[in-house]
Amino acid sequence: MNARVESVATSVHFHRPRDYTRTPEMRSPEYVQMSTAAAITLGLVQGSMHRTACTHCLNLLVTYAEGCRANCSYCGLARHREEESAYADRNFIRVDWPTARYDDVIERVRNRDDHGAFERMCISMITHPDSGDDTITLLDQWVARVPDIPVSILSNPTTMRYADLEDLRDRGADIFTVALDAVTPEIFERTRGKTVHSPHRWDKYWQALEWAAEIYGPEKFGVHLICGMGETERDMLEVCQRIRDMGGHNHMFAFFPERGSMMEDWNPVPRDQWRRVQLGRYLIDYAGANLADMRFDAQGKITDFGLYRQELDALIDSGKPFRTSGCPGNGDEAVSACNRPYGDSSPADIFSFPFALNARDVDVVRRQMAGEQVGTFDLEAED
């Protein structure tokens, strides 16, 4: 690996301020955690992000010293890490999540010269007795003080009732999302159900999605899905089609073995599988395609996307199917405001692109789809 590649291989770079130490008193709703990318964009920590100046969604996470009470096997915040490290110091989707006073976060957003850099804010809940009430408090304060930036809720269905979804909508939540993550009942049970002593249940999560479809309506709810936890490509796209038929959108993550999680020894999702599923998800969500027109082999691998070659090539060349998928912002609804820079891979081998792809990026994607073991920087390393 040459020096340039090595300099970006570990994702974003930042320096913690001297007063970074967290204490048990740093808890929501007075405090929130945020992604490293959000902290850099707000100027709370010094740093830079490869090929992107900022994140367009302010990802916030409710926080408590006692942590999340769930025990999902792929998550860095899981309960089983209690004896290993303090909750607030654990990594989550590959990066640190600095803590800040919520009032300071709001004021920094309000006072930014490029106020429009943030096209959306997202409050992420965890499994904790106070998470529901504190999410409402955070939402109320945001809507009152930053009314021009819409809010998404990344929910915890395990602790929620129908009336809770209505309340969040009535208080100004724009989009409601559910982190289903696992796409079959068996994988869900193995990774976040009774098997790992976690409280989540498959049926409860689908109930929340059905509630969201009814309460928020078409285009206003979504689901998080993780590709690479043992499902087939057909399994993944069957869920994508089901969500789209309900009126929602699919926000997809590539599985990356989270340090400290019970699945830290698993391999990342194979590149070719990931690229095919990204493309299939995009076709279902934004190009009017349907699973019924696609073809799969005996192992559930996509062999035909159901489009004419010229049309498929044009979509691939646009690069859009391979960008981070999530809640929309101010522009093209197919381009996520929630670009989550390097949340599921390092810049040395980008899985979800947080920026528009150039011709070289598209070439890498095409080669990966064909089965070549080529990374984002392999071509640049050869120059």
What structural keywords apply?
TIM Barrel, globular, two-stranded antiparallel sheet, alpha/beta, disordered N terminus, 12 strands, 383 residues, 12 helices, 8-stranded mixed beta sheet
What does this molecule look like?
The chain is an alpha/beta fold and 383 residues long. The protein has one domain: Aldolase class I (TIM Barrel), CATH 3.20.20. Helix content is 33%, strand content 14%. It is built from 12 helices and 12 strands. The strands form 3 sheets. Strands 5-2-4-6-7-8-9-10 form an 8-stranded mixed β-sheet. A two-stranded antiparallel sheet has the order 1-3. The longest helix has 16 residues, at 271-286. The model is unreliable at 1-20 (pLDDT under 50).
What name goes with the CATH superfamily?
Aldolase class I
Number of helices: 12
Number of domains: 1
Specify the overall morphology.
Answer: globular
Which runs of at least 5 residues are low in confidence (pLDDT < 50)? 1-20
Strand percentage lies at 5-15%
Within the largest sheet, what's the order of strands? 5-2-4-6-7-8-9-10
According to DSSP, the number of beta strands is 12
Main β sheet profile: 8 strands, mixed
CATH class: Alpha Beta
- Enter the CATH topology name: TIM Barrel
Order of helices and strands: HEEHEEEHEHEHEHHEHEHEEHHH
Rounded mean pLDDT is: 89
Rg computed from alpha carbons, rounded to a whole number of angstroms: 20 Å
